[in-house]
Amino acid sequence: MNFLSNYGLFLIKFITVIIMVSAIILIFISGTLRKKNPIGKFRFTNLSEDYEQMKIELQLAKMPLQEKKNWLKNYKKEKKKKLKLEKISIKNTKPTLYVIDFKGSLDAKEVGSLRQEISAILSVQQANDEVLIRLESCGGIVQGYGLAAAQIKRIRDSGLHITITVDKVAASGGYMMACVANHIVAAPFSIVGSIGVIAQIPNINRLLKQNNIDVEMHTAGQHKRTLTLLGENTDKGRKKFQEELDRTHKLFKHFVHEMRPNVNIDTISTGEHWYGNNALKLGLVDEIGTSDDFIIKCMNKFNIISVQYIKNGPKIFNYLTDSTNKIISYFLSNLMDHMKK
Predict the structure, then answer these.
(1) Of 207, 204, 227, 202, which Cα lies nearest the Cα of 217?
(2) Is residue 104 a contact partner of residue 172, using CB atoms and an 8 Å limit?
(3) What three-state secondary structure class fits 223?
(4) Which residues contact 172 (CB under 8 A, 6 or more apart)?
(5) Distance between CA atoms of residues 257 and 270, nearest Å
(6) Among 306, 309, 305, 197, which residue's Cα sits nearest to residue 255?
(7) Is residue 274 a contact partner of residue 284, using CB atoms and an 8 Å limit?
(8) b/e for 135-152, b at 16 or more Cβ within 10 A?
(9) Which residues contact 142 (CB under 8 A, 6 or more apart)?
(10) In this structure, what DSSP letter does residue 94 have?
(11) Nearest to 307 by CA among 24, 40, 94
């Protein structure tokens, strides 16, 4: 029994050393990975080439074998001629349509990638270039979507024409982003609008009182706290909270009206949402269609390039941490079994 106890103590010490060494190694590896690529990376995709390749493959699929060979021969000849012409007249190259995808969450954390994508585009912009943003968002926190709208305004202020397409939804903060565009295209049944502000806070003060639990809250500043989760809310606090919501709504309305001066702001800022066709009548959008239709229309006029910034996730670090935890758990469970015996 003494032998097992001594062995158990030795094993615990040994595992403690292993944990410490593993933690140091993990911290070192994590730091090295972050130094090599601290934030993320860009992915650029030529959508014009992708679309052209898709069209060729589909055309070939419909042809019999001999016709397919003849078509490919003629296509290669035409492609060589086209490349020669492009080399001769570089000045006549087509402008670029940059495509950004934004699928927003409640806290608008995607604005970090949006910022990088916009900065990249503005660093290489040329005359007649345009930007397309394929937007999908139900809105969320004011600060996050306010920043996202401000990022898109950077494009507008630079002089580039912006089109935003809404295939599914651009509501509340999502519409705050959309209204910055020079041109908004919405699918017939997409949801647009919801120009309003909402906030709700649960309050469990009565439950705490029933269980004789007191809550103390101390503030410096008359309106530092209006409504609270734990304390007893007052009519004065509720009134101030409502004033803050109204002030935010007023700012939202002013921003939308500044971006789209032709809309009847009082009609559209009731917090309601509309489907694409009705949104067109109210002036919330400019055209009914899908992002796919818009891109296909632009194929002959623009080189179309998708710009995507992908943030690095700590996948390797998490994997190593999980592996270490599993090894430690295995040793500890075996130790406990031996001690019981």
Answers:
(1) 227
(2) no
(3) coil
(4) 138, 139, 140, 145, 194, 195, 196
(5) 14
(6) 197
(7) yes
(8) bbbbbbebebbbbbbebb
(9) 173, 197, 248
(10) P
(11) 40
Instruction: Record the tokens describing residue 28, joined without a space.
Output: 């070192």
Which contiguous run of DSSP H or E holds residue 311?
A: strand 303-311
As beta bridge partners, residue 289 has none
For residue 273, give Cα distances in angstroms to 136, 200, 307. 15, 20, 30
* Chain centre distance of CA 323: 31
SS3 state at 36: helix
User: In sequence order, what E strands does 138-266 have?
Assistant: 161-171, 183-186, 191-193
Residue type (1 letter), 41: K
Report yes or no: 4 and 338 within 8 Å, Cβ to Cβ: yes
User: Distance between the two ends of the chain, CA-based, in angstroms?
Assistant: 9
215/208 Cα distance (integer angstroms) = 8
Structure tokens, 278: 């009705």
Residue-by-residue DSSP string for 110-153: THHHHHHHHHHHHHH--TT-EEEEEEEE----HHHHHHHHHHHH
130 close to 162: Cβ distance less than 8 angstroms: yes
Q: How confident is the model at residue 317 (pLDDT cuts 50, 70, 90)?
A: very low
For 170-218, write each residue's pLDDT tens digit. 999 999 999 999 999 999 999 999 999 888 888 888 888 888 888 888 8
Q: Cα separation of 124 and 249, whole Å? A: 36
Q: How many whole angstroms separate alpha carbon 269 and alpha carbon 250?
A: 9
Backbone angles phi, psi at 205, to 5 degrees: -60, -40
Helix, strand and coil in the chain, % to nearest 5: 55, 15, 30
How many CB atoms lie under 10 A from the CB of residue 74? 10
Catalytic residues: 172, 224
- CA-derived radius of gyration, the chain: 30
* Number of other CB atoms surrounding residue 73 within 10 Å: 10
Fill in the amino acid letter for 256. Answer: V
User: pTM of the prediction?
Assistant: 0.74
